[in-house]
Structures are given as structure tokens and as C-alpha cells.
Task: structure prediction
Amino acid sequence: MMKLRTLTASLLISTCLAGHTMAQESSALDAEIAAIDSQITEVDATIARYDGGLIRMLAESRREALLLLRTIVEARQEAEAAGATIDVTVPALEPDPERAEQLLGEMAAQQQRVEAAEREAASAGGLI
Result:
């Protein structure tokens, strides 16, 4: 009977701690969403100031990136609320030392061509 009480108490404590942790994570994600929303508002104001051009295009690109980020954070929040496990997979490439050496050689050759062109331009005189 004593073991059952101990087990029940430890289960209750761990459940409370897990709920507290989930609430903290949820509030952190809520804060992150609020920060993203304020950045979107700032970007919208920038977009409204310009009729076109590079600055507007950059602001629109940033807005799309922020909207994508907001969607990702919301999905993470929903996944945590549902108790889903989150696995982050980062694709990686195996380095190829032979290809790296080849590229370094090509870069060195191109750098020599640039230096030769600069020397030729410096000695040409005139308008150059």
C-alpha cells in the first residue's frame, strides 16, 4: 500500500511538473508569435510607404518569411499541445576532399588571372 501511495504521489508530481513545463513552453511560443506579429506590422508599414522598387520587394520578401515563420511556430505550438514528439532533421552532405581540392585549384587560377588583369590595367595608362 505504501508503494502505491509513493508511486501515485510521484506520478502526480511529475504530471504537475510536465504541465508546468508545457505551460512555460506554450507561453514562450505565444510570446514568439506576438513578436513575429509586431514585426509583420512593421513590415506592412514599410510596404505601405513605397509604391514599388527594391525596398518594397525586400519588405515583401521579409513579410513572406515572417508569415512562414509564424506558421512554423504555430505548428510547433499545436504539436506540443497535442503531445506529439518533435524531431528536427537537418540534411547534411558528406564532404568530398577531392572536389574541394579541385575547386581550390580553380579559385587560385582565377585569382591569378584577376591579378594579371589588374597589373595589365595598371600599366596601360590613359583613361584606365
Summary: Residues 1-5, 7-12, 16-23 have pLDDT under 50 and may be disordered. The CA atoms of residues 36 and 94 lie 35 Å apart.
